[in-house]
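#struct-pred
JK: can someone run the complex with D-xylitol-5-phosphate? inputs below
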Amino acid sequence: MKNLLAPSILAADFCVLGEQIREADEAGADYIHIDVMDGMFVPSISFGMPVVSSIRRATGKLFDVHMMVQDPERYLKDFAACGADSITVHAECCRHLDRTLQEIRELGLRAGVALNPATPLSYLDYVLDKTDMVLLMTVNPGFGGQAFIESSLEKIRTLRQRLDAQGLETDIEVDGGINRKTLPRVLEAGANVIVAGSAVFGGDICKNVKELKEMMK
Ligand code: DX5
Ligand code: ZN
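RT: done, structure tokens with the ligand placed:
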């Protein structure tokens, strides 16, 4: 499977957001990871549709929208209209996860399911056929710059084994606390889409993207 790097713009300097996205794009970022937080499911409020439509002009890379939003089905059409290519919803936030995933695909987008660190993989049992990507949170969602949760490694490994056993090539995305130390470990466990916030936007963006991508070869 292809390894892909998805810089999380939550760690970018919002004053020059477009320029920083362009820099990450040109350095070789595969996706742009967009953390939408509602102040309900997670304590923070980040940004929403107007920001996503503006930054759509900065890059042609795939917009990987991670909705940390209660009842996210309320906003699927809006995010599709402002340029999302993939929408990931938290299983914990959806009363009708199966229906929500179908709706995302009907909008022509890739559908993702996110699980918090404490949420069991069994939440995926009956929806894998409707899921293009599983996002395993490797920190508790809500903030950038937190420490990687060690128990995630076993969870990634177990999920990859289950997917392989079912002959599924579903992407496994990891998000939170990914840096030069944790990256090789999550890759080895079976993750292939790598979100990195502070490890990309903290310091020299171009150098960071290139170094992380090199480690993913
Ligand atoms: C956390 C967000 C992450 C976050 C990752 O709730 O979903 O995408 O920005 O930041 P780092 O890579 O700094 O842990
Ligand atoms: Zn995220």
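RT: quick notes.
The chain has one domain: 4-215.
Residues 4-215 form a domain with the TIM Barrel fold (CATH 3.20.20.70).
JK: thanks, will look after standup
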